[in-house]
Amino acid sequence: MRIVSLLSTLSCATAFSVAPSCSRTTQTSSTRIFAEGGPPQYDKIDAVLREAEVVGEGCVMLHMDVKDKDTVTIDYEPGHVVALEIEEVESPSDDDDDDSDSSKNSEDAKNNVGWMRGPYTVSRATADSLDILIKVVGDKSERFSNASPGTPLKFGGKFKVPILEGIQTEEVKNVVLLSTGVGVGPCIGAIEKALSEEYESNNFPPIKLIASYRKESEVAYTDHLNKLQDEHPKSFSWNSVVTSVDGRLSSSTENLEKFLNASSSETHYHLIGNGQMVSEFKEGLAKAGVSDERVTVESYFNHKAAIDNERVDRIAAHFAAKKVEQPELA
């Protein structure tokens, strides 16, 4: 079963152990490096924050550049997971009443010469830059989001399969990307790449993006996605779902019909974001008879949430009924 899921060892900052640093004069390797029987290790690349761009409420795109561009070339794709680090700023007080996440981050920073760290998914990348979309939910993400241009960063490692690499394009006729929250970031990067001349020349299948948010103010990159849709009407379409207004995508048959239109067994589905959503759609698609190779996933949080069997059955019924039809891009 070709399911792409977030490594459990990367679910918190303490998952990372640091490999000895080395001089970097060549392209970074995609090989995973693990300690003997322990968590993943990674070589560190020095970077500089170009901008922490607010793109929605609590949603920040970190634009960063490799510090030593003359000697270091990187090779990342949308959907790769990296270890990202920033130097901790001492809080005004060291009270023992801090929440557990803050305490864990501070303890990990002490073990990492004062640098906070955690796993983040690449949204975009060039040979000397990375973009990473983050949700501001705690002290570590606040530190990243409040950092000024020029702030030193470090990143390293290369985990998971990139979104486009996980799609067997020669065997599918359509691609559906279903995201919640900042899971839209890697989807946007993957869409941009799929619509590029490099991929269009290979007849990449049409893409449908369904981006789900809790509130209207959280919706990100509306103008950019609308522009891509206008420029590539036969290759890309998208909709946003605002759950405080529309309800969950899977909360009703009407919502599934409205936002997902129709689907087929020749469609690839990539599910990314809230772990409960990912698990429910993964289970529903399986019950509808969609093959394992047609589903890739990445869960950001809420991994242990129990699935709602009623929603799973509703998802399964929707896709089973539409199995022989093609998704509409309109």
Give a verbal description of the structure.
With 330 residues, this protein is α/β, with parallel strands linked by helices. Helices cover 25% and strands 29% of the residues. The protein has 9 helices and 14 strands. It has helices spanning 100-110, 139-146, 184-194, 197-200, 222-231, 243-246, 253-260, 275-287, 309-321; strands spanning 17-18, 33-34, 40-42, 45-56, 59-66, 81-87, 115-125, 129-135, 152-159, 174-180, 207-213, 236-242, 267-274, 295-301. A 6-stranded antiparallel barrel has the order 4-5-8-7-6-9. A 5-stranded parallel sheet has the order 12-11-10-13-14, sandwiched between helices. Strands 1-3-2 form a 3-stranded mixed sheet, with no helix packed on it. Strand 4 and strand 5 (59-66) form a beta hairpin. Helix 8 crosses helix 9. The relative contact order is 0.14. The model is unreliable at 1-38 and 326-330 (pLDDT under 50).
